């Protein structure tokens, strides 16, 4: 049995999903749907305008679309025709997205798995599981070391900045506080260091550093490091998109202190997000095969549905 | 709506479950079933011989029984009458336990959640989830720092040992290897340090240390530390039952290295195991209410079923 999959959207995420599907033992990639007719890939490319006519040939459609406008504009129409998996990551709007996808998928008798990836996604699962274990818990999420796209863009808008990247780095003392149960005092500001790597002419550097350190919302109130480096060093060392972080939950049980920690250390944020999305495609397929319909968050999906192995194999291997 | 719970078995685990249930917002504790008529508790105590007559008054029965003989001898009869949660931890026999509990629970129209706790339990969930994310992965489990009951017992059997405890401690270099994707070379022997704290007369210490270091299966082939200490120091510092460990999974995605790590640092192994067991009682109750029957491993249970909060609250808070 092979799961027939397809991709809509071909940015970093879509390319990661494409590469990943080709490594799966139980999936085939029917094609990529794009507004562009020419993509640099060996996979068949179809116009996204024709997508509805492929409904009978595709079991799971991976929505590799942006959360800002593409998902809100396109996802429900796709969920009415296909079982889908998305990585919608606007945390505050997840309940509204869930509701919209639930209605669309239910009417189309499809399954829509929403907000996969790692945050939301694996971090969400860990937040729910860990806080359920303790009658009262202290929970902190930390992000990084990772590239913040928004902060990197802010650096690049400064006059004279030729190249720049900003890494968000959780402070070790804040992580230690969370592990020891003193995380209530940890705030976004005191938990994260903002590390900037900038290419600029020497004459501009003092002014640029001052503009960075006084930029409201983005840098004021944070511990900030500014490093000026040569362009070749920047190209060599700062081309990746690492990310990751920690969910740390602790609680008191019978007078003892107990800590649950989930950590991701990712060299490629988009490739890892794609890998999680691909695995949830297996769950979407199996839920639909089992007669389910509607939206499913990662909190509602039994872990074994992600694995290519059978439940019997997992019971013998992982338990 | 209150979940009516009861406990069978009143050792360290049963006491931990009792304390924990009393802190839950949606559970009441009907009583403890024991072979002993007098227990040091304010909770009502009933003879385990009469347990079947309480079937109508109890939604979830926590089996706080040993895995060696109690669970194999008693669990199926209890699952035929009650929805149950156990912490059966004989990894190799989990598939057989699953099958036996599935048949018994199904015939009684009950739900039996098996092998909760942390290993098996939370570690199992993480092993399945993490290995599902990578097309190919390297996965290592580490245990400790924690008290090994079997090794501590082995120390106490040595002539002249008055008090002793053995901590299993994962080696930092082995953990680092796993994080870096070189975990295939990590074995149980080279991954764990065995640290012994012993109270004994000075005249016996050289012989005792020699007996420890040459004890086959338990200590030969491991890095071993032996510390002789005074009795008052032992009583003051070594009365706890800490445990924990790591599940580390890494894989290559698009030429990048990515690591998923789940860590537990527990001051009380039995109280934490009890806390996980109690949370799965909520899942057992909800599955039964939803018309399900039979055995469920932790791999089959959607995470949100463990939380006292509703799915809507979790979608707004944890995602």
From TrEMBL, chains A, B:
<dbReference type="GO" id="GO:0000166">
    <property type="term" value="F:nucleotide binding"/>
</dbReference>
<feature type="binding site">
    <location>
        <begin position="64"/>
        <end position="67"/>
    </location>
    <ligand>
        <name>NADP(+)</name>
    </ligand>
</feature>
<dbReference type="InterPro" id="IPR036291">
    <property type="entry name" value="NAD(P)-bd_dom_sf"/>
</dbReference>
<keyword id="KW-0457">Lysine biosynthesis</keyword>
<feature type="binding site">
    <location>
        <begin position="87"/>
        <end position="89"/>
    </location>
    <ligand>
        <name>NADP(+)</name>
    </ligand>
</feature>
<feature type="binding site">
    <location>
        <position position="168"/>
    </location>
    <ligand>
        <name>substrate</name>
    </ligand>
</feature>
<keyword id="KW-0220">Diaminopimelate biosynthesis</keyword>
<dbReference type="Pfam" id="PF16654">
    <property type="entry name" value="DAPDH_C"/>
</dbReference>
<comment type="similarity">
    <text>Belongs to the diaminopimelate dehydrogenase family.</text>
</comment>
<comment type="pathway">
    <text>Amino-acid biosynthesis; L-lysine biosynthesis via DAP pathway; DL-2,6-diaminopimelate from (S)-tetrahydrodipicolinate: step 1/1.</text>
</comment>
<dbReference type="InterPro" id="IPR032094">
    <property type="entry name" value="Meso-DAP_DH_C"/>
</dbReference>
<protein>
    <recommendedName>
        <fullName>Meso-diaminopimelate D-dehydrogenase</fullName>
        <ecNumber>1.4.1.16</ecNumber>
    </recommendedName>
</protein>
<feature type="binding site">
    <location>
        <begin position="116"/>
        <end position="120"/>
    </location>
    <ligand>
        <name>NADP(+)</name>
    </ligand>
</feature>
<dbReference type="InterPro" id="IPR010190">
    <property type="entry name" value="Diaminopimelate_DH_Ddh"/>
</dbReference>
<comment type="subunit">
    <text>Homodimer.</text>
</comment>
<keyword id="KW-0560">Oxidoreductase</keyword>
<feature type="domain" description="Meso-diaminopimelate D-dehydrogenase C-terminal">
    <location>
        <begin position="117"/>
        <end position="268"/>
    </location>
</feature>
<feature type="binding site">
    <location>
        <position position="143"/>
    </location>
    <ligand>
        <name>substrate</name>
    </ligand>
</feature>
<feature type="binding site">
    <location>
        <position position="243"/>
    </location>
    <ligand>
        <name>substrate</name>
    </ligand>
</feature>
<dbReference type="GO" id="GO:0019877">
    <property type="term" value="P:diaminopimelate biosynthetic process"/>
</dbReference>
<feature type="binding site">
    <location>
        <begin position="10"/>
        <end position="13"/>
    </location>
    <ligand>
        <name>NADP(+)</name>
    </ligand>
</feature>
<keyword id="KW-0547">Nucleotide-binding</keyword>
<dbReference type="GO" id="GO:0047850">
    <property type="term" value="F:diaminopimelate dehydrogenase activity"/>
</dbReference>
<dbReference type="GO" id="GO:0009089">
    <property type="term" value="P:lysine biosynthetic process via diaminopimelate"/>
</dbReference>
<feature type="binding site">
    <location>
        <begin position="34"/>
        <end position="36"/>
    </location>
    <ligand>
        <name>NADP(+)</name>
    </ligand>
</feature>
<keyword id="KW-0521">NADP</keyword>
<feature type="binding site">
    <location>
        <position position="194"/>
    </location>
    <ligand>
        <name>substrate</name>
    </ligand>
</feature>
<feature type="binding site">
    <location>
        <position position="269"/>
    </location>
    <ligand>
        <name>substrate</name>
    </ligand>
</feature>
<keyword id="KW-0028">Amino-acid biosynthesis</keyword>
